Amino acid sequence: MVERGANGSGVVQGEEAPQRFRVRRCRLPGEGCAPVHLVGGSDRERAPVRRALALATTIAAVIASAVFLGSGSASADPSADDWYQLRMCESTNRYDINTGNGYYGAYQFDLPTWQSVGGSGRPDQASAAEQDHRALILYRNRGWNPWVCARLVGLSEDSDARTKVAPPVGGNQSSGGSGSSEGSSSASTSGAPEWPGRQYSEGDYSEDLKAWQKQLGTRGYDLVGTGYFGPKTKAAVLDLQSKAGLNVVGFIGPKTWAAAWSGGSAAPAAAAPAASTYTPATNESCGVGGSTAPTWPGKQFVEGDTDGDLQCFQRQLGSRGYGLTGTGHYGSATKAAVIALQQRNGINPSGILGPKTWAAAWEGS
Fold first, then answer.
1. N or C: where does the chain have the smaller number of CB atoms within 10 Å of the terminal CB?
2. Residue 23 in this model has a pLDDT that exceeds 90
3. Contact, 77 vs 137, CB < 8 A?
4. What is the pLDDT of residues 301-320, one digit of tens each?
């Protein structure tokens, strides 16, 4: 979540926010003096020409540098699967999500950050391609720093991060990329309605889904076209993807959409293994509200840490009125809650989250 405040994953705001920094601008080449070539004798008459050539070389270098800074290739950017993992953590890969908490779309932009990278309107109302592009601009400006989810997932920066080089429109992180995404459908499929331009996963509702469900109903699947992506639709998606030789990922992308109308006469290609997907912590998986603490993760946590294991501790304290939501980032609010919990349970109020403090969140007073 970009500049995230108080709802789940993402960068937290205010007291929980990681430290910001500015990126220094580099000097353009050619600002210093051009190399001096010693000339003698009759070469003196050619000195003005040499100076002119040196000046022209300097100007050409500056222009080339400016062109490079204006646009750059996305070839070194994070992979499509990296972006997919980020979106799954931030928004369960939903480009149209708006929960009312001030963060929008697949990358959970807030409006000031969205506008800072050239966006207009609300992110969740923009196309998937535009959201991808704005996220790539932000990445090239600030790396993974705006997204706590990047650290929870374990993403690493590459040579394009923080360069401030403007990426080409489209980049390489589109939901139609490789890895866990289906890719774009290149096969011509007669009778198939145009792909709506967004992925559908369990829990979604869309009028466009009705046509897809009704089509599968004509092929023997137990679907009637409700527009709701429930367990029956997911089971049908998985079965269709398996039979069509697609990545068995459980969401409807452009190829799965087209496969509903495909005759499937050609022998299906072997399905590529689906990449591992980040699974966010839930109250159930964390045992929130239980009387027994989950297994201690085996490492201490201090202010400034970001770790997926912190989410369960924060969720548990949140259920006990401490005002934490499970961001995974150990900020000042988490430290204050840790110290209060330690004082209440007779533990040294060090602000360090160790095994005794961990257990006290579930078993203490």
1. C
2. no
3. no
4. 998 888 888 989 999 999 99
Residue type, 139: Y
185-274 in CATH: which number? Answer: 1.10.101.10
Residues 6+ apart with CB under 8 A from 21: none
To the question of pTM greater than 0.70 for the whole model, the response is: no
Is residue 306 a contact partner of residue 148, using CB atoms and an 8 Å limit? yes
Reduce the secondary structure of the chain to three states and give it as a string. Answer: CECCCCCCCCCCCHHHCCCCCCCCCCCCCCCCCCCCCCCCHHHHHHHHHHHHHHHHHHHHHHHHHHHHHHCCCCCCCCCHHHHHHHHHHHHCCCCCCECCCCCECCCCECHHHHHHCCCCCCHHHCCHHHHHHHHHHHHHHHCCCCEHHHHHHCCCCCCCCCCCCCCCCCCCCCCCCCCCCCCCCCCCCCCCCCCCCCCECCCCECHHHHHHHHHHHCCCCCCCCCCECCHHHHHHHHHHHHHHCCCCCCCECHHHHHHCCCCCCCCCCCCCCCCCCCCCCCHHHHCCCCCCCCCCCCCCECCCCECCHHHHHHHHHHHCCCCCCCCCECCHHHHHHHHHHHHHCCCCCCCCECHHHHHHHHHCC
CA distance 35 to 164: 29
- The reply to whether domains 1-32+71-180 and 283-363 share a CATH topology is no
Tell me the pLDDT tens digit for each residue of 144-165: 999 988 888 888 998 889 999 8
Domain 1-32+71-180 fold: Lysozyme (1.10.530)
CA distance 86 to 1: 9
Where do the structural domains in the chain lie, given as residue ranges? 1-32+71-180, 41-70, 185-274, 283-363
Q: What is the fold, at CATH topology level, of the domain defined by 283-363?
A: Muramoyl-pentapeptide Carboxypeptidase; domain 1 (1.10.101)
